[in-house]
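Severity: low
Component: inverse-folding endpoint
Summary: output formatting inconsistent between runs
Steps to reproduce: submit the following structure tokens with default settings.
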């Protein structure tokens, strides 16, 4: 079997990758275990120095890596460069902070000395998506490798070119053979990998269906798991908001990466007169977005990563309209490209409200007051993050617990940042990436008691 990467903008084939045979897969797993036995003892300062090397390679080769990303999944080239630079940032962040995060944690007891020792656990399998093909991997790999674990990457098959480059970065940065390896396998091989004695944990970023499958397998084989799944983030605009800033931020929060982001603002909940203040400017802003060849510097929105993704988004739009939503602008599909779309009069029960819409489609919901707005925001199977726009930030503080999400952003779009823990609740998954919490997900917190 082989895997093919195809340019979603023009449909041209880019490259073909052969699936690893069972023998090759077994060799990779054995190499990972062998590498771990020595890698776990490498001093933390040396591991951090290798992260600096990786960051340097990323920054020196921004254009090369960004081009591969854009060709494989259609991200506008300017956004692709930003993604590569963010990967360098997460490497530098953990190079600076990992030693502190992994230091022994002293605890006073009746012992002469007692503390928590942070130790690596072994090989961690990462099942990663195509929408941020470098960032999703580096935000996992930087802390996981620096904690002393080894990594096995099962990337999305349409971005195996990115996966190849990432493995090459770690090799060129000086990481020992077997510490970071790609798995070019289909989904039917994942269970055998999770079941293998080498693998101690699995992390997945992807759909809810994939998350349930992987969580089930992890439970079956008693392996630790972290899941970062879908989202339908609410973007609440109160009447007192800075409307120009809310429009500009809402536009970015929905249309970035051609709308293909789990933490994108998807449900815009406009309170009272905020509807009349927000809608005209938001519609004009979305109308003005420049689509086209994602390799062109001026392109702001490219195609979706595959035609079937555009097909699915179009079906969600049509079903919502059939149920009473109003198509304000957009709603036109051309192969993998989907025209930026705004639906108004969206209500619970419609796909545009209930489901994750993975593409450039904004759902507009009216709320009569702040209380109803937060009831609507919380009315979701997902729980990644909520944004609220208001000038009264002190009042916003008192609303933090109104939506049980993993993040609450005031006057800013929900975003990932190496310094802050990232993750969700409900059907958006469990566990945390990034920050101190991220590096602690795949370690053994060993209690040490000396008397």
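Observed output (run 2 of 3):
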């Amino acid at each position: 079997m082989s895997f093919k990467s195809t340019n979603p903008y023009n449909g041209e084939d880019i490259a073909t990758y052969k699936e690893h045979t069972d023998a090759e897969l077994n060799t990779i797993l054995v190499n990972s275990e062998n590498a771990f036995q020595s890698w776990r003892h490498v001093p933390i300062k040396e591991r951090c120095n290798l992260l600096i090397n990786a960051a340097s390679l990323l920054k020196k080769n921004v254009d090369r890596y960004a081009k591969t990303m854009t060709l494989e999944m259609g991200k506008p080239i300017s956004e692709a460069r930003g993604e590569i630079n963010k990967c360098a940032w997460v490497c530098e962040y953990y190079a600076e902070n990992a030693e502190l995060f992994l230091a022994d944690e002293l605890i006073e007891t009746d012992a002469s000395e007692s503390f928590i020792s942070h130790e690596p656990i072994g090989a961690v399998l990462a099942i990663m998506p195509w929408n941020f093909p470098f960032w999703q991997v580096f935000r996992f790999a930087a802390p996981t490798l620096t904690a002393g674990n080894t990594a096995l990457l099962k990337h999305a098959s349409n971005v195996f070119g990115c996966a190849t480059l990432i493995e090459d970065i770690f090799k060129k940065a000086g990481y020992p053979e077997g510490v970071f390896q790609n798995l070019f396998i289909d989904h039917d091989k994942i269970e055998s990998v999770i079941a293998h004695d080498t693998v101690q944990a699995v992390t997945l970023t992807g759909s809810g269906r994939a998350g349930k499958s992987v969580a089930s397998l992890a439970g079956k084989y008693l392996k630790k798991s972290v899941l970062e799944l879908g989202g339908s983030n609410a973007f609440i605009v109160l009447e007192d908001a800075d409307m120009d800033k809310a429009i500009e931020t809402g536009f970015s929060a929905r249309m970035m990466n051609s709308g293909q982001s789990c933490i994108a603002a998807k449900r815009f909940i406009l309170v009272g007169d905020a509807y009349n203040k927000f809608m005209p400017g938001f519609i004009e802003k979305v109308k003005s977005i420049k689509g086209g060849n994602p390799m062109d510097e001026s392109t702001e929105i490219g195609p979706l990563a595959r035609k079937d993704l555009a097909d699915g988004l179009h079906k969600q739009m049509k079903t919502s309209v059939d149920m009473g939503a109003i198509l304000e602008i957009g709603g036109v599909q051309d192969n993998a490209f989907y025209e930026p779309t705004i639906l108004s009069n969206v209500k619970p029960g419609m796909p545009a409200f209930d489901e994750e819409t993975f593409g450039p489609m904004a759902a507009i919901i009216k709320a009569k007051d702040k209380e109803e707005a937060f009831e609507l925001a919380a009315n979701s199977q997902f729980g990644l993050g909520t944004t609220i726009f208001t000038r009264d930030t002190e009042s916003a503080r008192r609303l933090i617990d109104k939506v049980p999400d993993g993040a609450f952003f005031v006057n800013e779009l929900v975003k990932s940042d190496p310094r802050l823990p990232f993750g969700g609740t409900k059907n958006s998954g469990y566990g945390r990436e990034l920050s101190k919490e991220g590096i602690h997900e795949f370690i053994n917190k060993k209690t040490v008691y000396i008397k």
